[in-house]
Amino acid sequence: LFNMSFSVVRAVSGPLSDRLGGEVALALALSTMLAGASTIVVSRDFNLDLLGEGLLALGAGVSTNAVFKLIPHEVPQAVGGAAGLVGGLGAFGGFVITPCLAAFAHMYGQEGYSQGFVVFAILALANLGLTLALYC
Fold first, then answer.
1. How many other C-beta atoms are found inside a 10 Å radius of the C-beta of residue 1?
2. pLDDT tier, 42 (very low <50, low <70, confident <90, very high otherwise)
3. Among 42, 61, 96, 119, which residue has the least CB neighbours within 10 Å?
4. Does the global pTM surpass 0.85?
5. What pLDDT score was predicted for residue 133?
6. DSSP string covering 57-95, please?
7. Is 119 within 8 Å of 102 (Cβ atoms)?
């Protein structure tokens, strides 16, 4: 469900980054991801978990477009190289986060499945702080 939602959002949210600018779109997307991850961490209700997952997918999809919108402004002399590096780091993040989520499930049992999303919340908060520090 997450991957499908993320892919759809990513496909249609490019104009949002064009309209708002990469900086604003990224800050909004990271805030949405933080809200989604936090909802999953604190919720014990399936419907709220679905809402959190939807918010997380929405934020992740928009943030991807926002980051790629920023690349030509930040690294105009090496857009292709920077885009490749950003894409590779994004793929690596997907590789690293899965074992982190699994570690929470292993350590905390059934509760760990939702508690593991604290990793997403921390990363979203850290990146939101960095985005605000750099662009606001």
1. 9
2. very high
3. 96
4. yes
5. 95
6. HHHHHHHHHHHHHHHHHH-GGGHHHHHHHHHHHHHHHHH
7. no
